[in-house]
Amino acid sequence: MSGKSFERDSSGSRIGNETELIQTYLAPLAEGMAGAFGLTDDAAFLRPASGSDLVFSSDPIIAGVHFFHDDRPADIAWKALACNASDMAAKGAAPVAYLLTLALPEAPERDWIAAFADGLRAAQSEFGCKLIGGDTDVTPGPLSIGITIIGSVAAGAFIPRGGAKAGDHVFVSGTIGDAALGLALRRDPSQFSTLTDDQRALLLDRYLRPKPRLALAGPVRSHARSALDVSDGLIKDLRRLAGASLGIAVKFDDIPLSPPARAALAANPNVRDSILAGGDDYELLIAVAPENIEKFVTSAGESGIRVHDIGVLESKITTVVLDPSGVPIALRRPGYDHFSR
Amino acid sequence: MSGKSFERDSSGSRIGNETELIQTYLAPLAEGMAGAFGLTDDAAFLRPASGSDLVFSSDPIIAGVHFFHDDRPADIAWKALACNASDMAAKGAAPVAYLLTLALPEAPERDWIAAFADGLRAAQSEFGCKLIGGDTDVTPGPLSIGITIIGSVAAGAFIPRGGAKAGDHVFVSGTIGDAALGLALRRDPSQFSTLTDDQRALLLDRYLRPKPRLALAGPVRSHARSALDVSDGLIKDLRRLAGASLGIAVKFDDIPLSPPARAALAANPNVRDSILAGGDDYELLIAVAPENIEKFVTSAGESGIRVHDIGVLESKITTVVLDPSGVPIALRRPGYDHFSR
């Protein structure tokens, strides 16, 4: 791991230099990875398991875009790794290691970086991977956290986004829309005043601490035709799963919602759009061939994560969500899109 | 590859949306990589060569920090990949693939992104790797280009930064300081007025288009004890090679300089500090055990890249550079350091 030094304020509450940042706070996250050299090298190595393919995803998160400047540092760190681990789950892969590039607007407070490292530790422990390298920089821009995650999957078993066929059933894990409502709450805590404190806390937690569905990686790898995670909104990601030649008509009432999301929807019907188009769910959309549905559902059941059959992919139809009277729901925006907000 | 859309200005000279950015300009860079899925997936896979370790490095470059906002886009792209490929050379590894995360302040001009992609194409063709994935985002900050490079090395053959022993000779490739002088020229083109246009162009090129010493990866892998690339200044990186227990006294006159650097130094003795402490050389520092020197020098000679023996690592000495009268040169700053500039 290499980095630029922070030489100012070495006697204060801020990090004194790059060596302190890396060796005190980050190197413990690389313990046990021989190829990480305690983050003292410019590069790292991994020995792939025999008969395995390595899987890669690289999704940075940027303050003011993917999280709030004043989010808790442990939550920021968790989210940075969780977004990337979610891609591994969708591909049927198990996370192994990750590289971290930190672009910091200034030398961080020791308390802040300690909490950030704690969040990374919690996440990597939960997801089964360790830090092996990266870089630190000072940036004139906002805090930016780049993660490249490395996963492992049996050779040839990677589950692509494309390749679903007409007749495949589409399953969605967990519940949809909670993170979008959590984001609305994060922006304006006075929202959803008819919900209980616990319900609001659940929504906020879904936004701040996404839970990649790694327990579903096995069922996906063994029984799915294609899969992706819901990061940019259900409809946008359904369209990606369907590809250019297929579509799916999903009944809104078939979309799994949490009790808080149901309560928020009951109090305000406009919440429906946020549920359908909001991002950050990090649930999985999984296309399963008819002959594999029983095995997939059994295997998913054993994982402890609920999956819901929300419809069938068909040729020559557009992907839509239907209201209870069968009318396609028109959305102001079909999914997360920075420029059109 | 995933990304956020750019929906404004779709009729103008700027990219209309994320699909155009990725599919028109970036996907061609992934041609031939089956596991990249034409950049239509959220993740990619690689099948490691049997008996090999994979090597990873992740170094972003940020406008205003590592390059100038108005550098030519092809040069920016080249530099982004070259910095990372340089780490592979130092580890004895061969680049295989890379992930690219682009954080753009706004939807880019089509001309800009086309030239950027051309720069990436030239670099990946030169370095022997291809794009396999990544992400695009809109950022409130400056343009930032994150590369994670993936290399391959025979299992167990990774050359670490640490591990040099007393008595090892230190070799440096090419010439030192050109990039630092090129950076000075980039800031103020009126500098070094005694140099010829060609000499100034060479210095500028060394800064704008660093050449990773990949041809030395084989000699390093086969004969070196430890190595790293010179990215933060010769003295700082010599100290890293020496580690906590060793040091080296290098005579300034033994440091290989290019004819333009010699000319600049002759005209202004203060140039010496820039040569010693400036970054961005991307030459290699290589520690070789005495019994391997002959084989290393022969092998390096066959690579076509010059290497120079600049001294011997010793116990219990500090790393210094000595002037012609044998006095250690005191530097205002020992190497690149963003905060203390």
TrEMBL record, chains A, B:
GO biological process: thiamine biosynthetic process; thiamine diphosphate biosynthetic process
Pfam families referenced in this protein's UniProt entry, alphabetically: AIRS, AIRS_C
E.C. no: 2.7.4.16
Domain PurM-like N-terminal: 41-153
ATP-binding among keywords: yes
Residues that coordinate or bind Mg(2+) 3: D42, D87, D229
Catalytically driven reaction(s): thiamine phosphate + ATP = thiamine diphosphate + ADP
PANTHER family the UniProt entry points to: THIAMINE-MONOPHOSPHATE KINASE
Protein name: Thiamine-monophosphate kinase
Organism: Hyphomicrobium denitrificans (strain ATCC 51888 / DSM 1869 / NCIMB 11706 / TK 0415)
Lineage: Bacteria, Pseudomonadati, Pseudomonadota, Alphaproteobacteria, Hyphomicrobiales
